[in-house]
Amino acid sequence: MPFHKRLAELSYIEQSRELNEQEYDDLEICLKANMHFVRKIVNLYELSYLASATDDVGWQLEICGQIDELIEGKGLQS
Known about the structure:
Elements: H1 2-16, H2 21-53, H3 57-72
Helix pairs in contact: 1-2, 2-3
């Protein structure tokens, strides 16, 4: 997830100096991307729990596949 790397870079830079305008813009973009990522991953974890609670192994495996894709960076487009 490139936005996590950039977010870490910006945080590191900010420890030694104030961010410039472009860096603040990048920070805002990264924070929004992180918000979308967290919202999707939390939703999938909740669905996985529901699938587990209802003993729906097929559904849970499907959800776990989606979680893996999201973590690998393949599920962020939608």
